[in-house]
Amino acid sequence: MLTKPINEIAILADGNPVAGLTLLRVFLAFSLPRLKVLDGVEITQGERGKGMMLFAGLKRLSGDASAKSQFKTGGLNLGVFPAEGNQVKEGQNNSSATSKAASKANSHLDLSIARVTEQCIVSAANVAIERKKAINNIEKLFPAVLAEIVEEALEHSADVEAYMQQCLDRLPSPPRRA
Q: How far apart are CA 5 and CA 36, in angstroms?
């Protein structure tokens, strides 16, 4: 068990397949809210916000109960952490303001995740329908196309044979030896 929070991580890229992941920085910014520096570059609030938008909903959908405990929002601005300088207005109960803002952010995420999921499903269904139509068209047209290709090949073969015969006919006949 660590006695101090981790503020900085360096990931060595030499032979490490994880270092090449596109969303690694955003994921670590979301997963480790106290992390301040990754590979010598400070983590921005924008990266934390992107991580929250991408990964918080996925954790909730997967049934991970720790998603709420890992992310706390201080307002409607996604990716803002109270521990990092955002203060609640005076006179408000800190926990109730945070929970209200978190529930608004979570409901916004639920709607956007549902919308994106629905769009993905509709898009996948449309692609499947279009592919099925294309396959049906190919299956209908294939016999006619194949017959036409065979006919053209036979005609070409006959044309080549006729041309070769004409060439042979034009050749002078060899003198007869007596």
A: 10
